[in-house]
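Worked example

This section walks through a single chain of length 143. The input is the sequence exactly as stored; nothing has been trimmed or padded.
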Amino acid sequence: MEITIEQIKTFSSDLTPALNSLLKQLNEEAEALDDKDVMGIIESSPNRLFVARSGREIIGMLTLIVFRSAFAKKGLLEDIVVDSKYRGKGVGTKIILAAIDEARREGVTHLDFTSSPQREDANRLYQHMGFEKRDTNVYRIKL
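Given that input, the structure is written out below as tokens.
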């Protein structure tokens, strides 16, 4: 199985249903995206949308968000997910490495992301790749 990683820079009609399918696997409560939402993700200057493909089929995704704070140029990884049929085959590693390479090219000093403790295989992958679990609190307010 040949896996290719692509940074999406233009919208195509296959993106919306594929991303929605992946997001539902990541979180059943994920709100469905429409074409306008996907275009907005692609066109937003902080966002870099990456997909993994097997042939033409989109089998994984992540969003790298690059921003400048007073402290440093930082990156966030969001919505990291691989289709359940393709997990354990190196797809997650490839798409994360592509995002890391892009972050380095852009001068990002470090990448952060969160992952649910219940995603045990994913958390093992992240630690195996050199990500360190931080001792910090994550706060959220629903608006």
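What to look for: The helical segments are 15-26, 35-43, 91-105, 120-128.
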